[in-house]
Amino acid sequence: MLIALLAEGAAHGHTPDDAPPAFPPFETWHMPGQLFWLVILFTTLYLAMSRWILPKLSDTLEKRSDRIASDLDQAARLNDQATEAQQALELRVAQARNKARETSEKASEKMEAEMAAETARVDAEIAKKLEAADARIATLRSNAMTNVEQIAIDTAEAMTARFGLKASAGDLKSAVSAAMEKK
Amino acid sequence: MTFLMPSAAIDPIHQFQVSKWLELNIGGVDLSFTNASGFMLLGVVLTIAFFGVAASKGLLVPSRLQSMAEIGYGFVADMVRGAAGEEGLKFFPFVFTLFFFIFFANMIGMVPYAFTTTSHIIVTGALALLVISIVIGYGFYKNGLKFLKLFAPSGAPWPIYIILIPIEIISFVARPLTLSLRLFANMLAGHIMLKLFAGFAVVGLTAGGIGYLVAPLAFGMGVALNALELLVAGLQAYVFAILTCVYINDALHPSH
């Protein structure tokens, strides 16, 4: 029923005094006009696109890709520079480390040398003092021996005197010496 | 049933009616500015306005509108490059214009009460003839008579050519026909369907009874068809443009 209604509607779409209801796309009266305006409007659109809009768009796109390329170049360049700087830094750190090692080696060598010199000096001083002490001990001993001889002579003189004898100093001395030698 | 007097409201053909807006007669030829011309003008103005505004600033970091224009540019450029190669880019402005002319016309047609300029065979036929004229003209201009190799693909044994050449010629001649009819018929049929289902909904409601059952179904169909027609509107513009590229490729490289 609905379809019949619609079909009727289609059939009577125009009032009877209209031209016979042709299918509009196949009517011919409007075709020259449609063509005429199509040519004008399509040409207008074509000119607007090809002369104005498309060059502008392609210009923008080109500028952007140029900009991106140059930015990438710059980034690569900066990256290279950073790498170089890092290498230079590493080199300098290595140099500084070597130098520090050298300095510390030199310093320790110097200190060892100083220590050796000081030790030698002190050793020499000690040796000198020992020598002096030895000399003094020797003097003291010989003095002591002399005193002992004198005491022996004196004792011998006193003993001989007790016996009522008299001995010359020379005899006493030689006797004591001989006795001491024998000992 | 007289209250259902068929009217423009439910006549599915009425939407294709051309009516004069401005009478214009030059040398006995009726060149009136009609509703068809009006909506075509609207499409062209909208296209130029959209791209004009979108492209005007040329920002390094594009705005949304500029992005859309650039995507459109890239889309058509890739289509031309893909189908016709780098040489085909000579025709890029033409294909771009063609695509957006049809695209905007189809999309404007989706607006209720708007006139669909691409639903008239004279418009689609003229565009198809323009494409084929460019293909033939440029084909002969660039290749001379070698362009005729298009009809005789190399590498076939000679008896085959007796059948092959007529087939190739027929298929070439059919191109403007299919190109124009495809767009015309798609737009026409789609819009008739839309109008029919919308009409069913209206008639169903006014008829009452079983109509109350039919109307929501018809309305739902109408909504679904609207989505489909939006797809078809975009797709047919794309098909027209890509086939143009394919034909241009033939003009550039006729011997395959």
Automatic annotation (TrEMBL), chain A:
InterPro entries found in the cross-reference section: ATP_synth_b/b'su_bac/chlpt, ATP_synthase_B_chain
CDD domains from the UniProt entry: ATP-synt_Fo_b
Keyword Zinc applies: no
One GO CC annotation: endomembrane system
Keywords: ATP synthesis, Cell membrane, CF(0), Coiled coil, Hydrogen ion transport, Ion transport, Membrane, Transmembrane, Transmembrane helix, Transport
Subcellular location: Cell membrane; Endomembrane system
Any Pfam family: ATP-synt_B
Membrane topology annotation: Single-pass membrane protein
Membrane-spanning segments: 35-54
Chain coiled-coil ranges: 72-113
One of the record's GO molecular function terms: proton-transporting ATP synthase activity, rotational mechanism
Role this protein plays: Component of the F(0) channel, it forms part of the peripheral stalk, linking F(1) to F(0). The b'-subunit is a diverged and duplicated form of b found in plants and photosynthetic bacteria.
Assembly and interaction partners: F-type ATPases have 2 components, F(1) - the catalytic core - and F(0) - the membrane proton channel. F(1) has five subunits: alpha(3), beta(3), gamma(1), delta(1), epsilon(1). F(0) has three main subunits: a(1), b(2) and c(10-14). The alpha and beta chains form an alternating ring which encloses part of the gamma chain. F(1) is attached to F(0) by a central stalk formed by the gamma and epsilon chains, while a peripheral stalk is formed by the delta and b chains.
Family the UniProt entry places it in: Belongs to the ATPase B chain family.
Protein name, UniProt field: ATP synthase subunit b
Gene: atpF
From TrEMBL, chain B:
GO molecular function, one term: proton-transporting ATP synthase activity, rotational mechanism
Gene expressing this chain: atpB
A Pfam cross-reference name: ATP-synt_A
Membrane topology of the entry: Multi-pass membrane protein
Organism: Hyphomonas jannaschiana VP2
Family: Belongs to the ATPase A chain family.
Name the UniProt record assigns to this protein: ATP synthase subunit a
Subcellular locations according to the entry: Cell membrane; Membrane
Function: Key component of the proton channel; it plays a direct role in the translocation of protons across the membrane.
Gene3D superfamilies recorded: ATP synthase, F0 complex, subunit A
InterPro entries referenced in this protein's UniProt entry, alphabetically: ATP_synth_F0_asu (IPR000568), ATP_synth_F0_asu_AS (IPR023011), ATP_synth_F0_asu_bact/mt (IPR045083), F0_ATP_A_sf (IPR035908)
Keywords, in A-Z order: ATP synthesis, Cell membrane, CF(0), Hydrogen ion transport, Hydrolase, Ion transport, Membrane, Transmembrane, Transmembrane helix, Transport
Residues annotated as transmembrane: 39-60, 91-115, 121-141, 161-184, 196-215, 227-249
Any one of the GO CC terms: proton-transporting ATP synthase complex
